Amino acid sequence: MTHRHLLLAHSYQEGYLGYPIDSEKSEYWRNFSQKVHRIIYQCQVASYYKDGTFPWNQEKYEENLAICNGN
User: Fold this and answer.
1) Of 38, 39, 46, 65, whose CB has the highest number of CB atoms within 10 Å?
2) Are 38 and 67 in contact (CB under 8 A)?
């Protein structure tokens, strides 16, 4: 799984980057190829909020970061 798959998964989940909210497509990309460990997914999503790929959302950033850090 590449970071692009994670980007697509979260974009479909939240309706970012011009993609419509679509839970089926989000699930498809989250599980594409090989199953991604949830912590890896959450760490990558947190980094997208931090670097400005996704619109800043403090709550979602902290939520994903906490899972990334094992909390």
Assistant:
1) 46
2) yes
- For the chain, give every domain's residue range: 3-68
**Model confidence over 12-33: pLDDT tens digits?**
999 999 999 999 999 988 887 6
60: helix, strand or coil: helix
Amino acid in position 21: I
Global confidence as pTM = 0.58
